[in-house]
Design a protein that fits this description.
Elements (H helix, E strand, L loop, with lengths): L9 H26 L5 H5 L1 H18 L5 H30 L5 H36 L1
Helix pairs in contact: 1-3, 1-4, 3-5, 4-5
Protein name: Transmembrane protein
Keywords: Membrane, Transmembrane, Transmembrane helix
Length: 141
């Protein structure tokens, strides 16, 4: 049995994902309070996975000295997207609880489809930025 994890740096990804989410919440609220500008949440939703994948790509290249091979990059991207989905489900449930009122079957179906679509998008975001920033770090060296 190997001692190396099949999905390395997943903890780093989750920490940076949380930092990105909190940062986006702060920026959205600051823009709203200071300038009265309402920025769409959809555009901001992609920023935390991008940030997290960039940081993991940098760490991967610095510690291992190579760009993640394609099979490992895809596997990592899928597992990280599933971890991000778990976080998004928790955030969605907390948001729904704060709104109050009943959750209908149609609302639940729409949320489930939205989360599934967003997870697919996050897989590609993770894969792209993981490899892009690993190559960037190795090119600078």
């Amino acid at each position: 049995m190997s001692t190396t994890p099949r999905t390395p740096y997943l903890g780093t990804y989750m920490i940076w994902l949380l930092v990105g989410v909190i940062g986006c919440i702060v920026v959205l609220n600051a823009l709203s309070l200071i300038f009265g500008v309402a920025v769409g949440g959809g555009a901001m939703a992609a920023i935390p996975p991008m940030l997290a994948a960039m940081k993991v790509g940098e760490k991967w290249a610095r510690e291992r000295g190579v760009v993640p091979p394609a099979d490992q990059a895809w596997r990592w991207s899928i597992v990280a997207a599933i971890a991000a989905l778990a976080f998004e489900i928790l955030a969605t449930l907390l948001y729904l609880a704060s709104m109050g009122g009943p959750v209908t079957w149609s609302l639940a179906a729409i949320l489930a489809m939205g989360l599934a679509l967003f997870t697919i998008v996050v897989i590609f975001i993770n894969r792209y930025f993981l490899v892009l920033y690993a190559k960037r770090v190795l090119k600078v060296k």
